[in-house]
Specification:
8 strands; homodimer; alpha/beta; Alpha/beta knot; 6 helices; two-stranded antiparallel ribbon
Chain lengths: ~190, ~190
């Protein structure tokens, strides 16, 4: 792919029950759009992990799911390990109106993408190397993550083949065409 | 904007309680990424409408929110009115690996984008003029809608100015910078 560094997504502010589906979507999008790992801050329902695990088993590839209890210290630790911290927020530099994406790509570093729920601690804006807005309108952290990754990878992530999949879709104009992969089939 | 036709989003299969947040995100993404209207099939919680209404009041622009009881007949009616029906599904033609987006743009018609929940009636695949996959991996209808619109509008939707807004964000590298718009200020 065009951008070859490691991508980790940190999901802040999960609220039990209320955010169960949204956090599941965040994890699925991270995987499908080419990130290597999703990290949830705090306690997340078991069902979120189970859905992500099942999708990885069925649809393939190595994708990590983890939890941290202190997201701010996790962000600082990533920074010490050479990651650039990209916080997606409607208040940040507009990805369409600024050169922020070019600057991020030029760094050629591993990236920690941070996405929040409604309220994000002020500290996050400071620790972040880049506060990036996928437009300056309120919408969805799921959408923001997807569009950021789609632009970072220049769309190539949607053509990626996932290894070790049980199933694969043969794209179709009209039908659901799913192929069950043979045992030992690697692709 | 590059693509100037009318865009309506039809959200199928909302499940009460379970999909409350996801359907809200769908509506917010439709608005923020340049669609003109969201139509929910079936009963949706009052809180979903209230959130969307509040966002339109605060952040501007004319965005419609409606409900239909029979989504299949609504799809057929749109078709009779000259809309092209684009159903976003992981089983469809891959937007990255095919020329499906070019074909849609070339039609130069109004578009009804249909997005479902987990199970979509087979009929939808048949009524649709295009079944389009934002990648052939499972992820999120919110992400699919955002990336489809971002590609359809070539990113210009994220630079759009919303009229009649109470608030506007001044993009910032580090701070939350929100401006309260003056009375009578149109932009």
């Amino acid at each position: 792919m065009f951008f070859k560094k490691r991508i980790v997504v940190l999901r802040l502010g999960h609220r039990l029950q209320r955010d169960r589906r949204v956090s599941t979507h965040v994890g699925l999008v991270a995987r499908a759009f080419g990130a290597n790992k999703i990290v949830f801050a705090g306690i997340v329902e078991e069902s979120v992990y189970e859905t992500l695990k099942k999708v990885c088993e069925d649809w393939g590839d190595d994708f990590g799911v983890e939890t941290v209890t202190n997201p701010l210290s996790f962000m600082r630790q990533c920074k010490r390990n050479g990651y650039r911290i990209v916080h997606l927020t409607m208040y940040g530099e507009n990805i369409q109106l600024s050169n922020v994406l070019d600057r991020i790509i030029k760094e050629n570093a591993d990236i920690l993408i941070v996405i929040g729920a409604e309220k994000v601690p002020a500290e996050v804006y400071k620790i972040a190397d880049y506060n990036v807005a996928i437009g300056n309108q309120p919408h969805s952290e799921i959408a923001a993550l997807a569009v950021f990754l789609d632009r970072l990878f220049r769309g190539e992530e949607l053509a990626k083949e996932f290894t070790n999949a049980r199933y694969r879709i043969v794209p179709s104009k009209r039908y659901k065409n799913v192929v069950r992969m043979g045992v030992g089939n690697e692709s």
